[in-house]
Amino acid sequence: MKLILAAALSLLAAPTFAADAETMTCKDLMAMDSAGMTTAATSMKNAMKGNAKMDATSDADVSKMAEDACTANPDGTVMDAMHASMMTTMTCKDMMAMDEAGMTKAGKSMKMAMKDDAAMSAMADADVAKKAGDACAAKPDGTVMDAMKM
User: How far apart are the first and last CA of the chain?
Assistant: First the structure.
């Protein structure tokens, strides 16, 4: 009986988080222990399948990236924070290697990274991705964000 009570109390004290990587908040992530962060990193990698750079990244590195992204963007979901952070360094070559679903997700991320740009915020994710693709076709060497600033 004491063992069951101790287990129940430990579950109450443990931070809870959304099992779905798309809805996990930065607050949830930052409350996790290292084992929880590793599990969350695996979930995040699965949610970003199709992103060649992310597919090649270890769970430990994804966990560190998520923690850094949430430190820089503490409000909202972990995925939104990571996507916004990744946009600052994503190369045109990386983006052009994505499938259509990956490109649309990248469009959403670009909107988050450029949230102060009213025109960009009003566009559909797929339209932002197309605009980025066109910008990268014109300036293929460098980052997507630099190409978009042309």
Answer: 67
- Amino acid letter for position 142: G
- 53-85 residue pLDDT tens: 778 888 889 889 899 989 887 888 888 888 778
Report the distance separating Cα 141 and Cα 8, nearest Å. 55
φ/ψ (deg, to 5) at 117: -95, 105
Could you give the CA distance from residue 11 to residue 55 in angstroms, rounded to a whole number? Answer: 32
Which residues touch 123 (CB under 8 Å, ≥6 apart)? 111, 131
What's the pLDDT tens digit per position in 97-140?
A: 888 888 888 888 888 777 778 888 899 989 999 999 999 999 99
Amino acid of residue 105: K
